[in-house]
Write a structure and sequence with these properties.
There is one protein chain. The protein has about 250 residues and is of the alpha/beta class. The chain folds into 2 domains: about 140 residues, type ii restriction endonuclease, domain 1; about 100 residues, type ii restriction endonuclease, domain 2 (3-Layer(aba) Sandwich), CATH 3.40.1560. The chain has 9 helices and 4 strands. A 4-stranded mixed β-sheet has the order 1-2-3-4, with helices on both faces.
């Protein structure tokens, strides 16, 4: 086992957090209104009484961005966990399907599926993870003799006070970061460098976010609002759900 310096962790985070912000910004800039409209439930928005075009657009956009951010940031945290474990236990990205990290500690081979938080999946997704664990254990049992293999669902934040799930351990928050680093304080120490130039990135994002809200509201109003200004809910439902050829949003000519 080796030690990892806080300066190494901070340098890794400050370098790679820029990629996270860049991906979020690029995906926001590249968004098209028809794409996100088709993926959202028009019945839900009607039930929520969202009758102002800009409010409806903001609700749709925020829901879309939230799911995008969770996935992108989850990938960043996975990279951070692998980096830290590689320095401390020579951990590495596993070759087995569904296994993100593999390392040895105290004569135990750990195979880890890294998730952002504890409430990450439904019963089918959890069953699939358990299946990946079983397959990886069979492979390791064949290739590596006389070594205990422990499967771990590692969650970067949250808490689960019943970590033993039978087929695997579910280690959340402090328990997970301590497992891969042998440092019980690491889970709080990594929070500070995550804010590297956050204000600068946030200002850039807010400016583009406002542009997208305004642009989408204009497009939506031209296509899905009646002359009275009211939302044409029938047309909106048909756009996302009709069995006929989907309507196309007309681009405004300059």
């Amino acid at each position: 086992m080796s030690q990892i310096r806080r300066e190494e962790i901070a340098a890794f985070i400050e370098t790679h957090i820029k990629d996270y912000h860049a991906k979020i910004f690029d995906r926001l800039s590249a968004l098209k209104l028809p794409k996100i409209l088709k993926r959202k439930n028009p019945y839900l928005f009607k039930a929520k009484n969202l009758n102002v075009a800009q409010e409806l657009i903001k609700s749709i956009l925020d829901a879309h961005l939230s799911s995008q951010e969770e996935g992108i940031f989850g990938s960043f945290l996975e990279e951070l966990a692998i980096f830290i474990c590689s320095k401390v236990y020579n951990g590495h990205k596993a070759s087995s399907e569904g296994i993100d990290l593999e390392f040895e500690k105290d004569d135990i081979r750990y195979i880890v599926s890294v998730k952002s938080g504890p409430n990450w999946g439904n019963s089918g997704q959890i069953a699939k993870m358990k299946d990946h664990f079983k397959k990886a254990k069979r492979i390791l049992g064949t290739n590596v003799s006389k070594i205990k293999v422990v499967a771990v669902n590692g969650c970067c934040y949250g808490r689960d006070n019943n970590p033993d799930k039978g087929d695997y351990l579910k280690l959340c928050g402090q328990r997970f970061w301590e497992l891969i680093s042998d440092d019980e304080q690491l889970y709080t120490d990594i929070i500070e460098p995550l804010g590297h130039k956050a204000k600068e990135h946030n200002e850039q994002f807010k400016e583009e976010y406002a542009n997208v809200i305004n642009r989408f509201t204009l497009e939506f109003s031209q296509e899905f609002c009646l002359e009275t200004g009211a939302i044409d809910w029938d047309k909106l439902v048909k756009f996302s759900s009709s069995k006929e050829q989907p309507l196309k949003i007309k681009k405004k000519k300059d």
